[in-house]
Write a structure and sequence with these properties.
The structure holds two protein chains of two kinds. By secondary structure, chain A is of the alpha+beta class. Helices cover 29% and strands 36% of the residues of chain A. Chain A contains three helices and six strands, in the order αββαββββα. The longest helix of chain A has 21 residues. The N and C termini of chain A lie far apart (48 Å). Chain B is built from four helices and six strands, in the order ααββαββββα. Chain B has a six-stranded mixed β-sheet with strand order 2-1-6-5-4-3, sandwiched between helices. The longest helix of chain B is centred in the N-terminal third of the chain and has 21 residues. Classes of the chains: A alpha+beta, B alpha+beta. Chains A and B meet through β3, β4, β5 and α3 of A and β3, β4, β5 and α4 of B.
């Protein structure tokens, strides 16, 4: 019974973090993040260490896509690990890294894997998605066939 | 106990499938595929339907592009009927990738695969996440765009 409670808690925490992202309430996410957390954005080849670096990364999405949303999430409960499958959607009305705003929309499938400690905080997480899909949707690049 | 045994079985099956892939025995993967298998490759925007298509167009296709391709550093998350694996696909691009010619270059690509199993412990659906941009950049087919 204890195990079941713990499992549900981690899923609920990630769900709540995603809802907080959608309403841009970054402060609400802080309690579920361990201070020394690490977060890997694989396509960007970037590892964020600690809450502050993660926060800067998280904020960069709505800076590039002011209506950025985590849409249609599904959560897979793996006990101390929770996996979220969702679509990252938004309108590119701000600079996306070095790239200027295009006014176009992105809609990309994403997979986030979060690992929790025993007190229900995220200690490490990683995200997988296809950058080429985003850059093609924004018209920055023409996809060579694969 | 039954539940635990069932969960472990699905992880064990996915491990076996990776081992079969790594020893270049893609036909051995077929026995783990349900007839109703669907498999989405998000980065390519395609869905493979049925074991034959999956084996031919995904497994053999990968082997044709990377004859020494291997799944390495795989970590498995057991979520009941679903198993999530993260790892790295490493290999030498010694065959064409569709119309892109072989480059002889090596890739080291992080991936996440999500596989749902049916009651019989067969793979019923799957999806894989990776970054095609990373792959094509490593192969020298593409350069990351900049505003400069």
């Amino acid at each position: 019974m204890e195990a079941v409670k713990q499992v549900s808690r981690n899923v609920a925490a990630l769900e709540e973090a995603h809802r907080s992202f959608n309403r841009r309430d970054f402060d609400a996410m802080m309690p579920i993040l361990a201070e020394d957390m690490t977060y890997i954005d694989h396509p960007a080849g970037q590892t964020m260490r600690g809450r502050e670096e993660w926060l800067a990364w998280a904020r960069s999405w709505p800076e590039a896509f002011s209506d950025a949303r985590i849409d249609g999430p599904t959560y897979l409960d793996g006990g101390e690990a929770v996996v979220a499958l969702f679509h990252g959607r938004g309108t590119n009305d701000g600079s996306f890294g070095p790239l200027p705003a295009t006014g176009r929309r992105m809609d990309v499938p994403m997979c986030e894997v979060a690992r929790f400690n025993s007190v229900g905080q995220v200690v490490s997480a990683e995200i997988f998605y296809d950058q080429l899909t985003i850059l093609t949707q924004l018209g920055h690049i023409e996809s060579p066939a694969t | 106990m039954t539940q635990v045994a069932k969960l472990t079985r699905n992880v064990a099956t996915l491990k076996k499938a990776y081992e079969a892939f790594n020893r270049n025995d893609v036909d051995a993967i077929r026995q783990h595929c349900a007839e109703e298998l669907t498999y989405a490759v998000h980065a390519r925007g395609i869905v493979h339907r049925g074991p034959d298509e999956f084996i031919e167009q995904r497994m053999r296709w990968l082997r044709g592009s990377y004859s020494d391709g291997r799944v390495e550093e795989a970590t498995f998350i057991d979520a009941g009927d679903t198993v999530v694996a993260t790892g790295r696909f490493r290999g030498t691009n010694d065959g064409p990738i569709d119309e892109l010619p072989a480059t002889g270059k090596k890739i080291d690509l992080p991936f996440c695969e999500v596989i749902r199993f049916n009651e019989e412990g067969q793979m019923a659906s799957g999806e894989v996440f990776f970054d095609l941009m990373t792959m094509l950049t490593q192969l020298g087919h593409i350069q990351e765009p900049t505003d400069a």
